[in-house]
Amino acid sequence: MPGIVVVGAQWGDEGKGKVVDVFSSQAELVVRYQGGNNAGHTLVVNGQKTVLHLIPSGILHKKCQCIISGGVVLDPEVLIEEIKALKDKGLLKDPNHLKISDSATLIMPYHKIIDQSREEKLGREKIGTTGRGIGPAYEDRASRKAILFRDLFDSETLKQKLQLALEEKNFLIEHYFRKPTLKLDELHQKYFDFGQILKPFRIEDPGLVVATALSKKKKVLFEGAQGTLLDLNHGTYPYVTSSSTVAGSACTGVGIGPSQINKVIGITKAYTTRVGTGPFPTELNNEVGDLIQKKGAEFGATTGRRRRCGWLDLIALKYAVRVNGITSVALMKLDVLTGLPEIKVATAYDLDGRKITEFPTSADDLERVKPILKSFKGWTKDLSTVRKKSQLPKEARAYVDFIEKFVGVKADIISTGPDREETIWVKPLFKH
Ligand code: IMP
């Protein structure tokens, strides 16, 4: 059972970092397949914090090779900072430890300017993007104008592509957004220099490495970024990111077939959070929401924004199980709910007076639904030392059992605190 996808089952920030970090110790390859530095997770290395946005957290495990695949949008400046931060901590000594696809799409300064300027123009209607240039970079990919990672190593090609890009982008920047334009020679020199720093990490076709590893039954972990409900096609469009975040994207992003994936682990919190704008049926705009936000330290690792908090939405989770083909879930941050006298979950929605039990595909409909909630009795016992499901307070067990039954898959992992040890391993990872 070597090919496992770890996918966010909500609106991102479900705690994939912790799960991937722990799993990486057992994996030979960890592959990031989509998104860019809109993602982020904080790792603690020798007591020091490192925030990674692009490099998979498997980088902390010496035997595990990390790959950034062609489905990723890559900001070279951010990548260089991350590499430096890891090297400063004595990590990433061997460039073979990290391989970056020649086909990855570059995020350029004009993408960031366009992303941020569009949001400014939209005002109250904004998407609430991370401002990292993700959408405009994927647009260039789709319109076949993208500058790719491989172009950084060929001065002439880089210059030609930049010139073409700047003709269009500078026009937009100057005449539509009314911002200062970018200069070709400066940009060319800067990015060519970035290429020289990043050259040792390049790889032509990581899909071949992954397929070969899988054929030899090596353990490969595919790390998703963001979450299902932010998927460009299956999320709450237009309040989504610009890549496909669902498990199937591991295949298209890396260049392997669906038959190579054996297991899909959906990561979900025991409640729900969302950053950015867009519908959120179970949102709690009250003191319970504030409490969850504080106790769960719900601030974005990338933008530092306060995350919106609410009850667990089982209609949304059931949808995520379906569109990803999730085979089991990792239930994160159960401990955050400790001490609440009552815990609720959404088991249906009321849409204009009609009860619905499937996730609406229209964000307008989702904006109008009212959640129909089921109530559970809370618990007070500290969960941080619990290592077996049977040791959970009976109220917490009833909560977990209900979730599993409702969505039709088991929780193989239950997280009861931020530390690696604060985890209930119901089932080993690389086994049926
Ligand atoms: P973008 O990906 O920066 O274009 O932002 C589009 C939407 O996705 C916004 O609502 C962001 O807040 C959200 N988003 C992007 N990346 C993440 C993430 O890693 N976690 C949670 N939300 C994200």
Structural write-up:
- The protein folds into 2 domains: 3-94 and 204-425, Alpha-Beta Complex (Adenylosuccinate Synthetase, Chain A, domain 3), CATH 3.90.170; 105-200, Adenylosuccinate Synthetase, subunit A, domain 2, CATH 1.10.300.10.
- The mean pLDDT is 95.
- It is of the alpha/beta class and 432 residues long.
- The protein has a 10-stranded mixed beta sheet with strand order 9-7-5-2-10-1-11-15-19-20, with helices on both faces. Strands 14, 16, 17 and 18 form a 4-stranded mixed beta sheet that branches.
- The radius of gyration is 22 Å and the shape is globular.
- It is 32% helix and 20% strand.
- A hairpin with a 2-residue loop joins strand 3 (41-45) and strand 4 (48-52).
Keyword list:
432 residues; alpha/beta; Adenylosuccinate Synthetase, Chain A, domain 3; Adenylosuccinate Synthetase, subunit A, domain 2; four-stranded mixed sheet; 20 strands; 20% strand; binds inosinic acid
Short summary of the structure?
The protein has 432 residues and is α/β, with parallel strands linked by helices. It has 12 helices and 20 strands.
- The CATH C-level name of the largest domain is Alpha Beta
Query: How many domains comprise the coordinates?
Result: 2
Shape: globular
Question: Could you state the CATH homologous superfamily of the largest domain?
Answer: Adenylosuccinate Synthetase, subunit A, domain 3
Strand fraction:
15-25%
Task: Kindly report the CATH topology of the largest domain.
Answer: Adenylosuccinate Synthetase, Chain A, domain 3
Mean pLDDT across every amino acid position:
95
Oligomer category: single chain
List of distinct ligands in this structure: inosinic acid
